[in-house]
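User: Hi! Is it possible to get a structure for several chains at once, not just one? Here's what I have:
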Amino acid sequence: MELQETEIHFQKKVDEEIKIEPKDWMPDAYRKTLIRQISQHAHSEIVGMLPEANWITRAPTLRRKATLIAKVQDEAGHGLYLYAATETLNITRDELIAQLHSGKAKYSSIFNYPTLSWADMGAIGWLVDGAAIINQVALCRTSYGPYARAMVRICKEESFHQRQGFEILLVLSKGSKEQKAMAQDALNRWWWPSLMMFGPKDDESPHSVQNIKWKIKRFTNDELRQKFVDMCAEQVKVLGLTIPDKDLKWNETTGHYDFGEIDWEEFKNVLAGNGPCNKERLSARVSANENGAWVREAAAAYAEKKMKKEITVQVSDTTVMSKEQMLAK
Amino acid sequence: MRDNIYNYVLQLADNSLIMGHRLSEWTGHGPVLEQDIAITNIALDLVGQSRYFYQHAALLKDDGSTEDSLAYLRDANEFKNILLVELPNGDWAKTILKIFFFSSYQYFFYKELIHSLDKQLSAIAEKSLKEVTYHLRWSSEWVIRLGDGTDESHLRMMNALDELWNFTGEMFIAADYELQAANDKIGVDISLLKDDWNKKVEAVFAEATLVVPETKWMQSGGKAGIHTEHLGYILTEMQFLQRAYPDCEW
Amino acid sequence: MEQKDWPLWEVFIRSKQGLDHKHAGSLHAADAAMAIENARDVYTRRMEGVSIWVVESKNIHASNPDDAASFYEPANDKAYRHPTFYHLPDEVKHI
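Assistant: Yes, the chains can be modeled jointly so their relative placement is included. Here is the combined structure:
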């Protein structure tokens, strides 16, 4: 049957690391999964701007102020690249935004946690961006071309985010007693949610197997999570802070760090909308969108007026019709 | 003379910082993602400009002051920014108009400041001119889009104009230290910028189907440290950490 | 009503040292001036000396890459080959 052939051809490309591009045939489930995954990633970048934008007006030095503005702006840019990649799959930005605002689409649950102190800027940069980088580097080799290319662009820009976060914590950890306490407190609050960023355990991720086959995912949740723990367990030593996990221990046999059990109840609840900031985050985005409606309408109206003016000028200048007029016929 | 230049440079730094700070409040709340990025860019440019000015002022002060001690440890009555930049952002129309008024002023200002005998000011002006040329272009286009967009956007622009016009005059009223600086060929004679600025505003407003209001009374006082009630709140938020945890590195 | 009226634009950037424009991504803008400025803000990080092209996505026509074999390569028994005949510009592959 023809469909089977195209499906075999498709899988062969994926197996041979040939990128799938927008005009290629793809299984419907592949397309749907990609839309969900890429747009979720995009939504996360946009919502993720909020907990950090929170501290721009309170950044304690001009250099920190400037770099925080730049970081948050980067996140907006990343959201944009990802929305653009999703739109190649034949869905509009409007539809994607509607999905986010209605609660139909999810975003990374980490952003439903509040940023309570300046040290949170450090913790987010180190842990949240750190986790994101591990995920993103893996995705640079994902099978869908536009997604992979967006990831390459994002990864280039992301490394400064993690360095910035780590540096903020480092300065605090070497500072006054209050600053050190501030840093430890931030670590205490952001550690476990960061581990949850990698998603459910492998044996509770039903789609993982298919997504790995399609190379939408390159590594499993647990593999990436382990990589993250190993990395942070070493880096925290430089900070002189303590990761809030009494079960965190180097395992000589496995060559990795053992770590404690994640509170999956908390994860499920935050995902279901019961996190501390779910409502605020979403309502901020809905407000921005609603308050911006008149702006978008005005710009569209002006563009149309301008186009009409140009046609009129052309008609009166020459007898040659403008392209718009020809198309309108 | 040194004191005078110090005050002069501080005025420039404060203008850019407070304006940049206000614009950064839009981050994450813009009407469209692309515009969020654009306005944040402008905020970043302005904060960057302020840093150059503060660093220069700190050197002039020569008493251990730093860019941060100047920005974070002076009270409102020591800030010399014009009132326009400390006003709340309001809606997109008000913000756009604020940026348009201020960036067109900065455009003509930096074009002159390039000729300053103070090499550092001249260098800052040259770099900043490129940035504000873009800010002016961007905001002019938005003034036109909103002025000549829909009935609602036109109305909002008129409201914005109503609220902001009285604060534009201060840009051309020289404080003593500005007169002195211009005299010494360090600073700019801002009264000479008024004509160009008015012409620019008229041209853009004409395309935007907006009318330049009749000038009645112009608000001022910022350059002498007499501000609106808004600056106090801005500084409270901005300076909190440095005040709550003095003498710390961040 | 909203962003449906702000069309999608594809962005092409030629870097200062570059030889040609590369596809950088897409964005929504109400008009060409806005599209170019957005492209500058988002895709060039304000680098100087960079050339930006924006084209409304609807004006771009693309081939189907799966036709590559028959569309671009002549019969395998051709005796000679023109290098340019086979070089697919990156832009075509990415659209």
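The longest helix of chain C spans residues 32-43. The first strand of chain C starts at residue 8 and ends at 14.

User: Great, thank you!
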